[in-house]
Every structure is written in structure tokens, then in C-alpha cells.
Amino acid sequence: LPGIATRFNVLARSLEPLFESPKLDDDLKALIKKTFPEFAQPEPTPPSQHPPPPHTTKPLPLPPAQSVPHGSEGQSAVGVRADQREVNEETPMIISSDEELEGEDAEVTSAFSDTEEGGRESRTSELESDSFPADSQGFVSIGEENSRENSGSRGDGSCDLWARVEELPKGLRERMLGMRVESDAEEQTKLLNEFLQLLEAVCNQDVGSSPLLPVVAPLLSDYLSEEFSSGCAAASGTQTGSCERPSLAHCVFRQASPGSVLSPLPAMMQQLQPRVGYFYLHYMYLHCSASGEPQFSRYKDFARDQELDLKACLLRDLKECVENEPEVFYTMLPTLYREFSQALLASDEMLSLIVAHIDPIQLHNLVQKLMMKDFQLFGRHAKAIQHAVVNSLQWDSFEQFCLWQLLSAEGPDCHLVIPALASLSTEEHPEAISSALLFLKTESSISAGIGALLSLPIQQCSAIVDTIASRWINGRPQKYAKLISQYLEVVHKKGSEENVLAILEVMFEHLERLMKYLTSKQVFEAADLILAKTVQKEFKNHVELASRFQELHGVVSVLLELPNKEAASSHSKRNIQPGDKSSKSEPKAKKRRVLNMSELTES
What we know:
elongated
């Protein structure tokens, strides 16, 4: 049927930019075109006895231009191509059922960018009444329409908003209206600076002018909506290295300095424009980098003006930033962690934001900065690191990989990471276990590291402990003989006798299992049998342990008996009786002969 074919082609055209996205690699594009040729390359609508759709024939005549408010919803929903604006007077306006069907097709196209039922109804009513805006040119893309909706585009509410400009004093009103109609960037900046300076002067002179800020804030938010929608990188020129026009938002932030009567203005604008927060952060970041002076104290006032906790305010604004401008987010990240370390360090929500939007290049940059000790993501809090690892177990494989890459780059001590291994299982968390094994290749330099490893639960972590501990001990047996012995001495300070006994049981079971993977028993022999003596001492104090771990007890006992046998044999050799046969083999001492005087003279 023609109607179904028309709808299918409308859908195919709307999906074509998706299949041609530059973010897709060539192989994926080829596969999509091969699998869905009708979507990737839609064919023209087959001819039918009914009049063709408007986009394939001469356009219908348009009604006379009507005065439509700038940025109305109709403009954002429907556009007419420039070549269709040439009206063929000879073609009469015919309202048929097929044309109504085409109106519904246009409604389907616009519905991709507007999921609200009310928005679709308003678009349908505009199409049926043929109320096309006179200044609309070309179809509005889905992305552009979404950006207008997200950035607070001027619609019917904008007209009501700008009606409040009459509440401003004459000088402020003239400058505000002048900014709205001015198209030159320099003139806009000049008028905005004059407006802000005059606003500050009026508010300082007249205490009763404080209600002006609630009127000005929504007007400025709507006026700057185009800049907010383009992004702070484009507005400040950080994408290209040069700024084509000065940032109007920066003019507002500069004038709203601490102590000024305008300082609450950014917080008021935030209520209507969600991007104000991260624009404000980016402004502080640029000025901090340029001057070297701390600027981020202003953000604490910004959060306080909204009656928000600093961490909650940061997470809200940074979430908005990473979703809209990830490059800006990752550029500011090291500085933000230095300035707001107490709020962001080892934050689960912040780590989730980082890995959820990161790409390999940004991951490389963060790894490099972490290895250079430029900033810290995790800190030295064992519980915080353990919490971050446990929360990451529900993430995608790539996100978990990124977390462990960042953790390895920062390089916290092993004993801070090892307790988190108790929450892992080989069947459910293979990504985390593989990453943890690679991370723990680095040997622990303190007794708490090997002690924490040997204290992990047997059922869950036996394979992990066998892998890591055998690698450590086989490499440096003498070092770990001393460290394990030191930790066994510390165990007795852990609390009650029951707790000590439970810890010793786990450690001895790990040691007994490890004997299968050790290349020799050198770890028990090293450092004058220090580990063997310590283990034997615990067996004497806890007889039940000796009967349970008989293999470990037997190895330790044999090693300690050998020196005693050698000492006994050497002692028996020193105490041999004269009648023994062995005494014959000993050389007899020669007696000294005394010479007399005659013998001396003869010689």
C-alpha cells in the first residue's frame, strides 16, 4: 500500500544518519548495509495512482507568513526545504486523505526527537492547520531538536518569560532587549557587561532592588541557551585553541565574584539551566590554570547558595558534564581531584562516571598522570578501595578493566587491596580476579601484605592465595620467612583467644597447601629456621593445630631435629674415651729431651 511504503521510507530516512555515523567503524557499517540494505540505502517511493508525497513533487502552496514567536515549538518540530518555498500558484491547495497521511508521516518523523505525548499532539495540530513558520528553512535534525530541548530552547514559555523584562528598570530593560536583537559578538559582550555593571550598581544603591536577581536569572539563562547548548569548550575556544567569540557565560561568572551582590546569580541560573554548574567549574579551571591562583572556593559558595552538599553538587554537575562534553570532563579531572579531594577521593559514584564514559585515549592520559603522582583517585583507605572494587563487580567487563588499570597506575600498597579479594569468586567475577592477579604481581614489602593474603577465606580464595603467595615466596624465601614470622607474632594482639585460633587455622591451612607449589622448603629453613621455630611454637601452644595439620607439623619437626642431631654427633666426638679404637688413629705427642753440657760442647 502507498501509505505503508511512505511510512517505511520516512523511517528509513530517519535511520540513515544513524547507520552512517562516523563513530562506527568501516566493518560495522559494511555489515549493517549488507544486513539492512533497505534502511542504509532507502529506495525512492514507488509510483502510485495517488498524488506523490510532498517531498517528491512540487510543494503545496504555503499560507502567508504569520508572526510566530522566535524559537516556537512549531519551528523546532517542522521545517520546509528552501527549494520548497517557491510556491507554484498554478497548483491549487488540495486537502485529501493522502495529504493527511503525509501529515501523519511528518508527525512520525518528529516523534523520534520528542517522546512526550503532548509534544506529538501539538505538532499534529500544527500540521493539520498548515501553520508553517515563515522563517523556517530545511528540516530540523533530530540531534539539533534534542539539543534545543535539553538546553532550554525558547518556546511558548520563552514569550511569557521575556514579558517579565518589563519589570526591570529602564536602563536594564533597554540593554537586555538590545542584547536579544544584537547579532554582533563584540556588541553582545559589550551590552552584557554594561547590563551586569548597571545591575550591580542598582542592587548596591537600592536595597529594595534585591528582587531583580530572580527576574534577571531566568532571562540570562534563556538568553545564553545557545551558548550552553554549544558547550563550554566551544564557547571558551579550548577545542580549537582560539576563541571566535568571547564567552558570554564567563562575563556573568566574572561579574558574580565572591562578595559581590551578584554572587548568587549563577546558582539562580542553575535552577533553569542544568549546564550552568559545569560551565562554572570550567570557568574556574581555566582561570586557575592561567593565574595559578586557587579559584575553586567560589564553587563551595555556589553549592551553599543552592543548599546542597558539596559532594552532591559536584556529582550532579560533573554527571552533566561527562554526558555532554566528556573531553572537558577528563581534562578537568586531575585538578578537581586535587581541589576537592575530600569530596571525590575513592567516591563510588565518581569512579562510575569516569569508567562509564572513558575511551582508550582518555584512559591512557589518566594512567600517565596517576603514575606521575599528579593526583590520586583512590587514596590510602583500605575500606574505600574495597568498597570500590565490590561495587565494580556489577559493571561491564571494559569498565572493570578500566578500574583496575587506574588502580594499578596509582599503585596503592598490596595490603590495602588484598581484603577486597574476599568478595570475589572465579565463576562470577573472572574479570576482577584476572586483574587482581596481575596487580598483585608486585611483591608486598611489609608483613601486613603477606599476612592479609594468608588470612583470606579458604573456600573462596584458595586459588588466588596459592598463585600469589607461591610467586612471592619462591622469589624471595628468606624475606617472606621473616615477614610471615613477624605477622604470626602480631596475630596474638588481634583480640581474644578464639579469634587468634581462627586466624592461625586459616594461615596454617594456606601454608600446608602452599608446600605443593613451593620449589623447596627453603622458606622454613631460611633465616636460621625462624619460620619453622615460630610455627613449632604455635603447635606447642595449640595442640589441636598440630593434630589437624600433620603434614606441616611433620616438615617443621624434621627441620628442627636435624640441627639437634648434628650438634649431638659433634659433641660425642669431642668426648671419646681413651680405650676407644678411634683413639689409635690420633697422633701421639712427642716427648721433649733435655740436652746436657757435654752434648752441647761436642756439637
